[in-house]
Automatic annotation (TrEMBL), chain A:
This is SpoVR family protein. Residues 17-441 form the SpoVR protein-like N-terminal domain. Residues 445-498 form the SpoVR-like C-terminal domain. InterPro entries: Spore_V_R, SpoVR-like_C, SpoVR_N, Ycgb-like. It comes from Rhizobium sullae.
UniProtKB/TrEMBL annotation, chain B:
Residues 97-107 have a biased composition (Basic and acidic residues). The lineage of its organism: Bacteria, Pseudomonadati, Pseudomonadota, Alphaproteobacteria, Hyphomicrobiales. Residues 83-107, 138-157 are annotated as: Disordered. This is UPF0229 protein CWR43_15780. NCBIfam families: PRK05325.1-2, PRK05325.1-3. Signal peptide: none annotated. It comes from Rhizobium sullae (Rhizobium hedysari).
Amino acid sequence: MTTTAMSKERLLFNGSDWDFPTLQGIHDACEEIALGELGLDVYPNQIEVITSEQMLDAYSSTGMPLFYRHWSFGKHFAHHEAFYRRGMRDLAYEIVINSSPCISYLMEENSATMQTLVIAHAAFGHNHFFKNNYLFQLWTDADGILDYLNFAKAYIARCEERYGEVEVERTLDAAHALMSHGVHRHAGKTKVDLRDEERREQERRVHEEQVFNDLWRTVPTGKKRTAADVGLEKRRLALGLPQDNILYFLEKSAPRLQPWQREILRIVRHVAQYFHPQRQTKVMNEGTATYVHYRIMNRLHERGQISDGNFLEFLKSHANVVFQPNYDDRRFSGFNPYALGFAMMQDIERIVTAPTEEDRAWFPDIAGRGDAMSVLRDIWADYRDESFINQFLSPNLIRQWRLFHLYDDPEQEEGILVSAIHDERGYRRIRRQLSREYDIGWIDPGIDIVDVDLAGDRRLLLRHNVTNDWFLQEADTKLVLQHLANLWGYDVLLQEIDSSNEVVKEHTASPRKPIQ
Amino acid sequence: MHIVDRRLNPRGKSLENRQRFLRRAKSAVQQAVKRSLQSRNIRDVLDGGEITLPIDGLTEPGFRRGEGGISDQILPGNRAFVEGDIIPRPPGRSGGRPKEAGEGDGEDGFRFVLTREEFLDVFLDDLELPDLAKRRLTETEEESPVRAGYSVSGSPSNLAVGRTTRMAMMRRIALRRPRIQEIEALRREIEECEDDEKRGALEAKLKALTEKSRRIPYIDPLDVRYRRFETEPKPVAKAVMFCLMDVSGSMSEHMKDLAKRFYLLLYLFLSQRYKKVEIVFIRHTDKAEEVDEETFFYGPATGGTLVSSALAAMRAIVAARFDPAEWNIYAAQASDGDNSYSDGTMTGQLLRHEILPLCQYFAYIEVGEEDSDSSVSRSPLWTLYEGIRSEQVPLSMRKVCQRNEIFPVFHELFQKRDAQSKVAP
């Protein structure tokens, strides 16, 4: 420890007050450690100081600084606000936006220690993750997102002026209902360039209208022959079926949509796609940020830039953030991604620097490599939650967290089976199962558009592949299908298919009033 | 790195979204507002506040999994189980999995806070107060200036001399301006001084002091203070609402509840239209007294019924405290319709000649038991009032038996009318 006299000079702040020069100092100190010592690679940072009300605002529009108008954001705002007012929930300390420059919001009420924590966490931890993780590189366009949202907001406002708020709202409602099925799950396209999207909007619209006209032209004399000619396979190929990106399909092929409606579907789809990597990397992303803030805060304290008192304050919030209640605790509500991610990062650090025999057997590639940061940086870049857990959840951590696996088959009258626990036989099974719980492809119901009867009644056929007897929730599905039918303009049929390829359940919907 | 201070950005960015949401949820909000009124005090209602909306109609649907499938789950914190154990299912859960994150977020009822304005707007949608203002009172408010501390700028006529000199003195003391007496004393000392060397020192000191007093003026522009005035609106449109209720033995709790609802509506409605609304609660049996709200609704009382006593009490209170030239007077009377036969004439006289000329509006609701049929019975009071009711007097009357009739009746009494149509039904 440095002497008190010396460290007084170096302290970034005293007590809990801060001002803008202090923030600058904090940022610079964190940057020195993040880039110099941890070897992180980040987008330029932009730090914005906001009030709690603005924080609520930001929450309600999925964390974005500018967003189009829609009643559902008002609903979320009211909802969050009610919670906040009754003191039932704290506001998040931070919101950070995957953009370049990377924008981090700091709340004005936070103490200086909290601001340091947030800067270390968001402006360096998340920022590094956004910039380097392959999913974000593949699917998001940090340079273009803010401009694109700006465009989206203006575009939708223009539509409201021209076509009426009600019509736009109907379209947005429908698009939002299908949002979870509006992403490309499999790479294969080149990286999106949102700026280009915006530029080409006009051009595309004209072009697409022609394509649609062509596709749907019905020539009376040729009708019979078309039906006979176009075999199932050909037809599906022409429409790019099967297709799991429902919004994409509608945007390209729904016959009765106006060009502006297609553009709105497109906007919603882009937003969904933009957030898709975040859904798949919750544990890793928070784990990375938490690990980074922990390292930085410790270094700051070691270097005498944070006083003992403030460091204790930090440790207290840190402990809150990474708190994981046990399954039988009243506070338990699933795994805390901060806790799991942070524990795994620390565990990896341990494996790399001080491995046991078990670690050497399980992780021959990284055990004892010595340089924890370089191993972690590679992991942060190349994995998502599912593969990360599948690869790096160690027996050590499984024991430490006393993980166990419950298998609950409603057919079994006696009860729930404990199918694996934290022992030799259980490690791999627990690891595989936990990793599956983070696999979006496994969590989300898999629904494909499989066919359209072009020659007949143009009914759209969708299939849901039921796994483990999880059928779709009736009421919600009905509503979503109604939206889908309204967009499509004709009847829609959704079949639920069990593992033996039998249709077990069917849902149908007819357009209430075709959207004009 | 940039730091941007966004705190001063325009607030209420989500206002528009919020309004859209309210518009969308209008009927649900209206229902919820009505529900929430049942449990509040009359004055509390004005604070707006939290309401709970049913979630349906406001859901944002998505493809989700239903219940009943096979579930696998990893959980932390095993202490007792070994592989192969069978745990009985917790009761009340049909083969489902344990609660997942975010599920228990109060999604069944959606709560949020309405501002006072939003609350009242929803509530009083399309109602109108009959005969809103006294004819001789203008609609505009008078404003009068009120002292509001001091300011550093202002017109010379508002110069606050005392305050200014006090500020100057504070500054002079703080900056140690030499006092005049001090300099005088020094001068005298110099005159009387014989020793040249000492005189030199004293003169230097004098020079320093005079220079200092020149640098620190006696009164500085900094010291000047002006009296500040703010204009305060003086409400001219004032309203007083008289709640008259029969609390004799024949009034049941149910009837009182009906009455409370009616008063509450009226109060809400009035306070939406007037800056200032007073409420006077008068309860009566065979004699009348002015009471507070708590006693009015919940205080026990027994006795006979003399309606005229309440009217007389109202007349006296108006005479004492509410000059009809300045106040808009509203009265709402709730009763089960009982009155002593001997009191009929007296009541009629008072109402027709004393009370109605004072009032903007006099509403009489006759409350009945929940299961009774209001349309057949003709109570003494009803018959009496019906005789008084005519085109010229601001009296209207309705019968109510069910809770859910209150709002429709109120609505009917106060709905917007054409200008020429009369208040009385």
